[in-house]
Amino acid sequence: MYLWIKAFHIIAVVTWFAALFYLPRLFVYHAMSEDRVSQERFKIMERKLYRGIMTPSMVVAVGLGLWMLQQMPFWMSQGWMHAKLTLVVALIGYHFVCGHYLRLFANDRNTRGHVFYRWFNEAPVLVLIAVVILVVVKPF
Ligand code: HEM
User: Fold this and answer.
1) Which listed residue, 26, 29, 46, 117, has the most CB atoms within 10 A of its CB?
2) 18-63 pLDDT, tens per residue?
3) Three-point CA angle 36, 39, 40, nearest 5°
């Protein structure tokens, strides 16, 4: 059972990250777009990605992760798990910051340029590298 939960945990993590990488990329193109038709199309793409994939994936990934912890409470005594959970909290914060920018774009109130979103897009990359090393290598 535990391994089944882990398999679906990893699947949900992959789909969550696909959206975490793509949504800020859409913000880059949206911030560069100048015509009304493109802007309205980006709004729809952003909303569907966030509501249809990103948030459900986050809920499933976190839910299955917590379910594994309930089955294996020993992991909570490990330093790597504390570090991982700290990064996951930061990632959930990033997720909701994306939701905030999405609402600004939806109301035509975005004030940031494409260069900002290009840098913003890099943050989840760092979290992904750190968390995968923590859970696989379990260095401490
Ligand atoms: C609250 C959120 C999360 C919790 C409670 C959680 C918990 C867990 C637990 C208990 C395991 C099993 C560890 C083992 O059996 O060795 C696991 C595995 C894993 N988690 Fe998470 N996780 C969460 C979020 C994430 C996120 C955001 C990522 C990716 C960045 C991630 C990536 C992984 C990977 C790749 C594994 C497989 C490790 C392996 O056995 O090879 N998890 N997680």
Assistant:
1) 46
2) 999 999 999 999 999 999 999 999 999 999 999 999 999 999 999 9
3) 85
